[in-house]
Design a protein that fits this description.
CATH architecture of the largest domain: Sandwich
Oligomer: single chain
Strand order of the largest sheet: 5-4-9-10-1-2-3-6
Order of helices and strands: HEHEEEEEEEEHE
Structural class: alpha+beta
Shape: globular
Radius of gyration: 30 Å
Largest sheet: 8 strands, antiparallel
Number of helices: 3
Length: 211
């Protein structure tokens, strides 16, 4: 028997081809699996975008808080949006309340409580909230204690949490006692401090955001 033609040598001669075939098949399988994973992920993945705008002083606020202002950044996501609201030029350590509202100024329309904002010793503060803060933002009441059709809310407003703060600052000239509004969790807030009144009533900044 020719030792160069032994069964073992013939097996070894065939082995590289088999190994190459198996390796190629494994590579194809891995690539296919990766493609399926990417395709599956793409069904819930969306290109994120952001939209930023300012908050401007409410009626009479510039006279008592000349530096009062705010900034908002909304970043869209596949299921909801992230909104970061910052305020500055506020009284030190004062508390505020953030609302999504139908109209930027009184009578405000349908209003939705979002978050508290706490200013620090330098009069700055911020809050981050998640929800629907885009062209699809709306409220509806088909019945119950009140009834109204789907109504969009495209504006933002921030209120003093404590009504005595703006009163003591002289933001309410002519008032003999603090003005109380329902814009906090206990419905005993102060007046509005900043809003989005630089945008048209029926085209607030949230209407500019699309997912």
């Amino acid at each position: 028997m020719n030792p160069t033609d032994s069964p073992a040598r013939r097996l070894l001669a065939r082995a590289p081809g088999k190994l190459a075939t198996r390796a190629a098949a494994l590579t194809v399988a891995l690539v296919a699996a990766a493609g399926l994973a990417t395709a599956a992920g793409s069904t819930t993945q969306a290109v994120t975008s952001s939209f930023s705008f300012k908050l401007v002083p409410g009626a009479g606020i510039a006279a008592c808080l000349p530096s009062a202002s705010g900034h908002v950044r909304i970043t869209t996501g596949s299921l909801n949006d992230t909104m970061v609201v910052s305020v500055s030029g506020m009284p030190a350590n004062a508390g505020f309340d953030l609302f999504v509202i139908q109209q930027p100024t009184a009578p405000f329309g349908i209003s939705w409580y979002q978050s508290d904002i706490q200013a620090n010793a330098y009069g700055t503060g911020s809050a981050t909230v998640k929800g629907i803060f885009d062209a699809e933002t709306f409220s509806v009441s088909p019945g119950g204690t009140t009834t109204f059709p789907p109504t969009h809310q495209y504006h933002l407003g921030v209120w003093f949490n404590d009504p005595s703060v703006p009163f003591n600052l002289g933001c309410e000239p002519g008032a003999t006692s603090p003005i109380v509004t329902p814009f906090n969790g206990e419905q005993n807030a102060g007046i509005q401090v900043v809003n989005t009144a630089q945008f048209p009533v029926n085209a607030g900044p949230l209407s500019k955001v699309h997912r």
